[in-house]
Design a protein that fits this description.
It contains 10 helices and 13 strands. With 300 residues, it is an alpha/beta fold.
């Protein structure tokens, strides 16, 4: 069985049917890795799939990538809060328990676990590297508990990387498709004042960064997955209007967002100038550092 640092690995992906997980599975397979996809309803008779229902079977995997979790882009009703927490923290705890039930050499050596830029306290214009302070709202609390659940795998000798991801720009992704539709209808514009910084990353770089984290033993703990040049919301909307050749002049007042989105609007209007300090220090090179090039690639 191939191990970390070699050209080929066996990597299990939870959340493999989602945007990031699906592209990651394809990318790793093309690079020569064996990929095992986890699903609550795996296709019968197809190799390379396992059940995501407890108890998880992680035997024989070199690494696990856990990207599963319900979308936070909704009104945070009590029921939604419970689903969001359970889909992240409970599943991650089950992953760690499944790792603990195994003995080397069947035990995975690396766990790359999803987290989010919402971990941070809004920083205004100040950069937010990995050691910046945590926030105090619902989403920050979820991220803290999520990362703590994943970090428990370290007691089993597993290297844990928590990838704090910003807005992922990729065809077929919820964020991109919603923005594209609104702007195509001429309804695009800054959110609130538009001064807030948006942490963003192109899907291609997101996938490459996760692969990079899998293969670099020096990376551990929280790692920011966001482009090196976060932009203010008003700059992003202006560039998006340009590439779509549509107006971007209709601002969405903050109070209107709060009516529609409830408490989640606070995360949309907050400023997160997240920077990938650890990722770049480890030698990762972004293909899309700036918003104009990323948006142009999506509109080709």
């Amino acid at each position: 069985m191939s191990r970390e640092g070699e050209s080929s690995r066996t990597v299990g992906i939870l959340g493999a049917t989602g945007l990031i997980g699906g592209h990651l599975a394809t990318h790793l397979a093309a690079a020569g890795d064996r990929v095992v996809r986890f699903s609550r309803n795996p296709p019968e008779g197809e190799d390379g799939w396992r059940s995501a229902r407890p108890p998880l079977d992680l035997a024989g995997l070199d690494a696990v990538v856990n990207l599963a979790g319900e979308s936070v882009a909704q009104r945070w009703t009590p029921a939604a809060r419970e689903r969001i927490r359970r889909s992240r923290i409970d599943l991650t705890t089950e992953v760690v328990d499944a790792i603990g039930r195994l003995a080397p050499p069947d035990r995975p050596r690396t766990l790359v676990n999803a987290s989010a830029s919402g971990y941070y306290a809004p920083g205004g214009d100040h950069p937010l590297p990995e050691d910046a302070a945590a926030g105090s709202d619902f989403l920050a609390g979820v991220c803290r508990d999520w990362e703590a659940a994943a970090g428990a795998a370290e007691r089993h000798g597993v290297r844990v990387v928590a990838v704090r991801t910003g807005i992922v720009l990729g065809s077929g992704g919820d964020a991109w498709e919603r923005m594209r539709r609104l702007f195509s209808l001429g309804l695009g514009g800054p959110l609130g004042t538009g001064r807030q910084f948006m942490p963003w990353i192109h899907l291609e770089d997101e996938v490459r960064a996760i692969e990079f984290a899998l293969g670099n033993p020096e990376l551990r703990g929280p790692v920011n997955l966001g482009a090196p040049e976060p932009v203010r919301n008003r700059e992003f909307t202006r560039e998006l209007g340009k590439v779509l050749r549509r107006p971007a002049i209709l601002p969405v007042p903050g109070f209107a967002l709060k009516i529609v989105l409830g408490e989640f609007a606070g995360s949309v209007l907050a400023s997160y100038r997240m920077i990938p300090e650890k990722l770049e220090a480890a030698g990762f090179e972004f293909r899309f550092r700036r918003v104009p090039e990323a948006l142009a690639a999506l509109c080709e």
